[in-house]
Design a protein that fits this description.
Elements lengths: L15 H14 L2 H10 L3 H6 L3 H28 L6 H17 L1 H26 L7 H10 L15 H4 L8 H24 L5 H33 L3 H12 L9
Length: about 260
């Protein structure tokens, strides 16, 4: 795992159990803001997708994959201009403002805003990676940043059952990042489809756009803390990452624990 030695954390080994408890709290709290969004819209996450016009639903996955590729280029480019991690409030403010503008024009402007919001989300994820001592320009860390988007999304009602993004690993051979992007795109398309539908609600479009983007940027930032927190913990404690992920799963959902032999 590529690290940035200047920002790497303390050499003292942390308390694994306490660190995992803190990450579980982060994960559980990540979607809290989205409840207010759904209350505002008076609907459910699954119902939002059905509100999209069929032509939009049919091309949503392709649009999402393109947005991810554009976001990676734009986010990496922004790091060369403004290299230091930005305060979380800045990402939140930008995402909220752009979401409001995208929602104000209904579905057409919301679609146009999609790559911009995806870029802001990715840049926020990269900044969290850097906070944990990882180099966002390294290929394997770019891989990790895209993996964060495989989480179930802030409007999901899957009661924290989708944790595949924590253990997802693909060989970084030729085309590895492109393969990962193609794998993540359908999952993220469902999440972004909910956002687009929310922004298309008459009258509430601007407010819904601001609210969803606010919830999204905070959600993916918290998920990034979980993702990179586990990777950092594996390095600092010499505990295999896969073992930490399993312990995390069991703390999050005790019913997933294997029965005693």
């Amino acid at each position: 795992m590529t690290q940035n030695p200047d920002t790497a954390r303390n050499t003292a080994k942390p308390d694994v159990d306490a660190e995992l408890d803190a990450l579980v709290l982060r994960y559980r709290g990540a979607s809290g803001l989205a409840i207010d969004v759904l209350n505002l819209l008076g609907g459910t996450a699954d119902g939002l997708i059905d509100k999209l016009p069929e032509p939009v639903r049919n091309r949503l996955q392709d649009a999402t994959e393109l947005a991810l590729k554009q976001a990676m280029k734009a986010a990496n480019g922004s790091r060369r201009i403004v290299g230091a991690p930005q305060n979380g409030w800045l990402h939140t403010a930008l995402a909220t403002t752009i979401g409001m503008a995208g929602g104000a024009g209904g579905l057409p402007s919301a679609l146009a805003e999609l790559p911009v919001t995806t870029t802001i989300l990715l840049r926020a994820i990269q900044d969290v990676a850097q906070d944990y001592g990882f180099d966002p320009s390294a290929e394997n860390i770019q891989f990790d940043c895209i993996e964060v988007f495989a989480a179930s999304g802030p409007l999901s009602d899957d009661d924290n059952s989708d944790l595949g993004f924590l253990g997802a690993r693909m060989a970084l051979s030729s085309g590895g990042l492109q393969k990962l992007t193609a794998w993540v795109a359908p999952r993220l398309a469902t999440v972004l489809g909910q956002k687009l539908a929310a922004q298309a609600v008459p009258v509430l479009g601007a407010a819904a756009g601001a609210a969803t983007n606010y919830a999204f940027v905070n959600y993916y930032r918290e998920i990034a803390h979980v993702h990179f927190g586990l990777r950092r913990l594996a390095i600092e404690t010499d505990v295999p990452h896969a073992m930490l992920v399993e312990q995390f799963r069991r703390k999050l959902r005790p019913e997933l624990a294997s029965p005693a032999a």
